[in-house]
């Protein structure tokens, strides 16, 4: 058997009990690994009505079958748990090196259950696994924690995953961080770790991941590397300019949200573009495990250096907050990494706060003297810090923009779907992406089906972004394919260049499986439906497959997409039908039977 | 002024005196910076007859005018000193991050003169410069030294340059290492640092390098990045497979030396190719400062992980030693980095040792039980260690292959030019490269004029490698252009995609200079002639512009280039004429006058 290790590490924190168990390979056939398999185990093991921050919730930290192999972009792992932000199956994945090293240590998955009676961290050195006291790092930021625990471990090859103060403070927009700068960012997964009193997980693996067909793999790998190299996005745009290469592209399409989505075009966007970052801030590329793309940036800014911001981060702390100070954007990004926060949700919550101030909901006296207004860069950076440490109004903002806006009686000012903040694409100007935001199982998320790829970038083919034709089909396929990619432990960015057949070739070569393209995509569909069933159980219905009023009712006010609206009412029934769901968005028995669920 | 800082740090170790002085901008106009300017200052300040390992020798550690700017591949610095291996102007350059940070700290150059009365290291934190005691790290390897001194400095953003035990032991093939894995490798520069009792130099710079024309630079940068991306070597081969992409290419041309150049083709080369490394060892890319190419590899091997070997290293510990054990090659490479050794010279010395054993010169009883024979991988790795620590026969091998072979009365078995080991290209099958090896100012070196680029890779145009036509002209231009690239602080690999006009555009945009293409290339020619004049002063003559007998007299015995010989006697007079030198290879007064020397 290749790819899979075949072993799970289960840690009962309440009892301090560590055990291992074999991976259920029957389940793995149907749900692959990573997001899919961990999601299925989560829905099987955790009752849908448990409180996300209670000991009854569990955390499944899972690598993919391809994680840690020689497949390109195979550095990803996922954190699956019940989201404290919105109750969905949180499955936030992250790159860097940690996930591959969990496999090298001999595990496909680590499951955390119960709750420790004091702050602890988990130390995994191959088959030596220990629960250790973390009192001395509790309260410390991610950088200091990483440094301290690495020294304590005594081998600087150890990889560290940890939460920051935000996770300890149970911020609902807190992240799980690894390798200093990489985030399993969304859905508040950091708070779940915090609620269990787990500060960090160290892995040092000296083993390797087997490959079932090394000779076949050499050919498959060479083909995949060639496609990634020759593709304009993975071979040119991302390597040269990082993900912020999108700033100018998205802005020029007029779907670049400004000031909490009040506008959709920024005449000054180039001040904070990927091109400008490359000219003024880049120190070096900082690639994830086995990534030929290397979009990760290591940058320099006024007074500091470290990870450079991603596109979404640049946007959210930049134009969406009315800010063009690139140093301040770098600082805000660095603070999020340091404190263990999701940049998108933090920035969007600050922008919502700015609009709440603008419209008089938040009163000046609530701000403790820290400006919260569009365009104020220093204030923005300070609010990031306050959110991380839950200081003053920051404590409320640490619960995300929906709860913030709702507490002022203005939930419509929160640009969220299912309470999760929507990323940097105005859905009114890009119909498929709009439908995807509305139906994404985890809420306002771009990486569950990145329709920007066909609708803006023209990959794998160019679609008319204003047309509804075929979009329901595209969204379904993209969502299912993404579930496959996530579940294999690969990076979604590989899909700009690779297609279903490439992924089938990779998983078959590495694991020795024999998936046809259709069977593999059916795994993705199964994973999607499993997540959907969970959402229905926790109380979501078709009514929540929607977007904020602003993005449904009001036409875009400016720029190249001026006047456009999202025609969600027309798209949604087509999507349900495409999925084999009934009119209420519930999977039909036929659909589930077909998928063997 | 952009690019240049305008300040030199001079450290007199004998007196413990630290001073700064302005950079001589008049000299910089003619000799640029880095290799060129430091080389000129070296020949001005250090008498040609000083012993390289005496306190009278000086070390000039110099960044280029573009080092630390936003120019692509601008991470390089150079170590200029008199070579203890062969008396030439050693000017070994290295990438990584250290050089850029020396600029950030506020210096174009650090000059070390005299000799400390005890082991010391230099700590540079912007304008706070201290000579510190290094007794506790003397004897330690590069990794331990880096770790210890970083902790001592108390800021993990500090960059460390150091020597290993090999430099302390005055090995004539020892390197200066920086950022753990990057080497100013050749000509024994590590021993000169060792002779001065300087273990390490730490830099922490918080400043930045100014840019004279940021707007112009944005356009120039975008153009250069585009060319680097679209070029087959810098945009495809090197990023995907690292420099070891050359293994199959060079082998298939039949100029891939095997067993100390006894053969020139290896039927099993693919076992240790870049493609195989990528399939079996790569963990991630590890790019230098501002490098869009990112050929650096971070790899995994049996029992370890760290920097992956370069092409020359793979070859020298691989086919040139009759070895195809890729784990062993990785281990030998790692040991060289750890002990501070030049991989090419170490591997070539071991291979020469293997031939000396094969032919009965070295007796079994001299080996202390460690096998020294073609194909013995474990023995090879152990000999690397013995060379680093100067143990047994390793002490003699630490002086390089020429002194080793010469001590057994068989200097013809040392594959060197001017005592420096020749890299991985059989000159008999590639005439221009052969001429370049013979005339390179520092001896058997491929990176003073990489004729493989036109003669094998077809860049910037494809030349017939067996033809003599035009080769003297090409070699001259390549040598001069390389001197320009080195002296600006850029990586030679950029020249697969960029040409003279691109470099002129970059230096003019950054520094505000107005070099025409011709003026810039004349700087390169001036630098070349300055180095040549030094060689003549220390006693070299046309008689040493040659290659080992094996590579001149004997035709290639096997493979695609079978039967070929290097026609050096025909090439050399043309080259001298092309350079404006007399028949004895001495620059004529007209030549020097034309160059303003």
TrEMBL record, chains A, B:
Protein keywords: 4Fe-4S, Iron, Iron-sulfur, Metal-binding, Oxidoreductase
Domain Aldehyde ferredoxin oxidoreductase N-terminal: 4-207
Listed cofactors: tungstopterin; [4Fe-4S] cluster
Keyword Transmembrane helix included in the entry's annotation: no
InterPro entries reported for this sequence: Ald_Fedxn_OxRdtase_dom2, Ald_Fedxn_OxRdtase_dom3, Ald_Fedxn_OxRdtase_N, Ald_Fedxn_OxRdtase_N_sf, OxRdtase_Ald_Fedxn_C, Tungsten_al_ferr_oxy-like_C, W-dependent_AOR
Gene Ontology MF: a single term: electron transfer activity
PANTHER family per record: ALDEHYDE FERREDOXIN OXIDOREDUCTASE, TUNGSTEN-CONTAINING ALDEHYDE FERREDOXIN OXIDOREDUCTASE
Family: Belongs to the AOR/FOR family.
Name of the protein in question: Aldehyde:ferredoxin oxidoreductase
């Amino acid at each position: 058997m290749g790819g899979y290790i075949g072993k799970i590490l289960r840690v009962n924190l309440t009892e301090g009990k560590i055990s291992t168990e074999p991976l259920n390979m029957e389940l793995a056939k149907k749900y692959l690994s990573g997001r899919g398999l961990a999601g299925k185990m989560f829905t099987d093991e955790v009752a849908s009505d448990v409180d996300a921050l209670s000991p009854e919730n569990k955390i499944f930290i899972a690598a993919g079958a391809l994680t840690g192999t020689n497949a390109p972009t195979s550095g990803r792992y996922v954190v699956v748990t019940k989201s404290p932000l919105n109750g969905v199956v949180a499955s936030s994945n992250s790159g860097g090196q940690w996930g591959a090293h969990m496999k090298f240590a001999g595990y496909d998955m680590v499951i955390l259950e119960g709750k420790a009676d004091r702050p602890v961290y988990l130390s995994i050195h191959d088959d030596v696994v220990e629960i250790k006291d973390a009192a001395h790092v509790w309260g410390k930021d991610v950088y200091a924690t990483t440094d301290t625990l690495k020294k304590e471990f005594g081998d600087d090859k150890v990889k560290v995953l940890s939460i920051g103060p935000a996770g300890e403070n149970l911020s609902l927009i807190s992240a799980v961080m690894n390798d200093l700068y990489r985030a399993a960012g969304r859905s508040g997964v950091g708070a779940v770790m915090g609620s269990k009193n787990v500060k960090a997980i160290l892995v040092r693996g000296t083993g390797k991941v087997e490959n079932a067909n090394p000779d076949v793999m050499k050919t498959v790998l060479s083909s995949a590397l060639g496609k990634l190299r020759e593709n304009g996005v993975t071979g040119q745009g991302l390597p040269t300019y990082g993900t912020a290469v999108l700033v100018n592209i998205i802005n020029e399409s007029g779907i670049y949200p400004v000031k909490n989505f009040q506008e959709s075009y920024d005449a000054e966007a180039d001040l904070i573009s990927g091109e400008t970052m490359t000219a003024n801030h880049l120190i070096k590329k900082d690639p994830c495990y086995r990534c030929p793309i290397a979009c990760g940036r290591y940058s320099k800014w006024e007074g500091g250096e470290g990870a450079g911001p991603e596109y979404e981060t640049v946007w959210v702390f930049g134009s969406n907050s009315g800010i063009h100070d690139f140093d301040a954007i770098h600082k805000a990004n660095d603070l999020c990494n340091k404190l263990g926060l999701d940049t998108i949700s933090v920035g969007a919550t600050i922008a919502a706060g700015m609009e709440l101030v603008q419209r008089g909901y938040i009163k000046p006296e609530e701000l403790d003297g820290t400006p919260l207004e569009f365009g104020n860069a220093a204030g923005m950076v300070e609010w990031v810090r306050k959110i991380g440490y839950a200081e003053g109004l920051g404590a409320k903002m640490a619960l995300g923009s929906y709860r913030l806006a709702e507490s002022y009686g203005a939930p419509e000012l929160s640009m969220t779907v299912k309470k999760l903040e929507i990323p940097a694409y105005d859905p009114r100007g890009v119909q498929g992406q709009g439908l995807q935001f509305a139906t994404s199982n985890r809420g306002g998320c771009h990486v569950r089906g990145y329709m920007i790829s066909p609708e803006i970038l023209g990959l794998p083919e160019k679609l008319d972004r204003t047309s509804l034709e075929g979009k329901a089909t595209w969204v379904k396929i993209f969502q299912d394919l993404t579930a496959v990619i996530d579940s294999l432990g690969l990076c979604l960015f590989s899909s700009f260049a690779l297609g279903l057949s490439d992924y089938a070739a990779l998983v078959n070569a590495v694991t020795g499986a024999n998936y046809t393209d259709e069977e593999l995509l059916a795994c993705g569909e199964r994973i999607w439906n499993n997540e959907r069933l969970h959402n229905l159980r926790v109380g979501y219905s078709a009514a929540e497959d929607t977007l904020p009023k602003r993005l449904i009712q009001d036409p875009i006010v400016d720029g190249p997409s001026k006047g456009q609206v999202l025609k969600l009412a027309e798209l949604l029934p087509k999507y349900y039908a495409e999925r084999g769901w009934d009119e209420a968005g519930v999977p039909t028995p036929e659909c589930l039977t077909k998928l063997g669920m």
